[in-house]
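tmp note - Metalloprotease PmbA
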Amino acid sequence: MQIEQQIAEIQNIVDDVLKMALSKGATQAEASMSKVQGIAVSSRMREVENVEFTNDGGLGISVYVGKHKGSASTADLSPQALALTVEKAVDIARYTSEDPCTGLADKELIATEFPDLDLYHPESLDTEKAIQIAIEAESAALEFDPRIVNTDGASYNANLGMRVYGNTHGINAGYPSSRYSLSCMVIGAEGEDMQRDYAYTVSRRANELRPAHEIGQEAARETVSRLGARKLKTANIPVLLHKDIASGLFGHYVGAISGGSLYRRSSFLLDKLGQQIFPEWLTIEERPHLKQGLASSNFDHEGVATHDRTIVENGLLATYLYTTYSARKLNTKSTGHAGGIHNWLVGDTGDSDQAMLNKLGTGLLVTELMGQGVNGVTGDYSRGAAGFWVENGVIQYPVHEVTIAGNLLDMFANIQAVGANRDTRGSIQTGSVLLDNMRIAGS
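out:
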């Protein structure tokens, strides 16, 4: 069956469910359904370890009886099962507490236009080909250097899916999407020292994944480069967050400006709208409609239309991020962020990777962060780290078993540069980030 026909059939089901909810006493209702078909293949030491097939799908409905909400879901799409699911949701709503902030998103915010974002590029789910790709990545890693002694495996994933959302304000829209990824993690040894590292690639198009042998070789190269790692003495020094992990820094910013944290008063960025948070040269733009974007969407999980948006303007906190519920809690409007953010593009200073090392001068290049030592209320930051010691812009030796610490407000304000070479494999696209001064706890 063609994907367009499948989406149309699901839209019919969603339409029926919404009408059924209104007939059962709901004043408002919304329903969504996702279907995913996929394969996941993993290998270890050139042998197939797991082959998993996915064929999941389920419909969820939320009904509102006045300001009372009830939700239910089902994987059975028979008329009898759908009717029972709606009845359960309405029954639940009658017993829940009244909440003045609950309900559908405001009608004027609901998406009405659905341009093609080019998210769907189907390939046959070929198990043999997937196995071949995973083993090729592992083989390339194992053959790269004799110090690569073992692997944590390689994994190839392919997922073809669709999502349909509808509510009683009139939206009933769906779109298909595809996602492919390949990763490889290996273990290296030299004397008694053992290290591990990984590499991965992800794309909406299978043929735009990086070649398997490159992923294996990169995993091996990164692992070998970490052998002989040393500890550092405790000090205050500049830190360069490698582009592969720098998005995490801005991920903490996402959490701090999200409506849920704000109405609970559990954010270190509370009441700072319009204030200087980053250097004046730094801007962050959100682009929800990027073709083939990994976080692209015409509407959020509540049907609210997404729009291009400036998140940080000349270092100023330009907007908070609201769902419908958090917006009503704070007497404002949804920004279309139910379900997450949509392709953040972090501005840069035009520096190449080497130029970023030159700007670091002497300090720590961090390539891995561990632990969750971040306090969203105070902004206090403390995480385990590994990477490389750099002198005069030149990497000297690997470093491990250190902790980097600071406060996110100070870290944001003291960003010295952002590299031009962005990591585009996630919802936040950024280059490496140079921080002026952080506390390093070592030996």
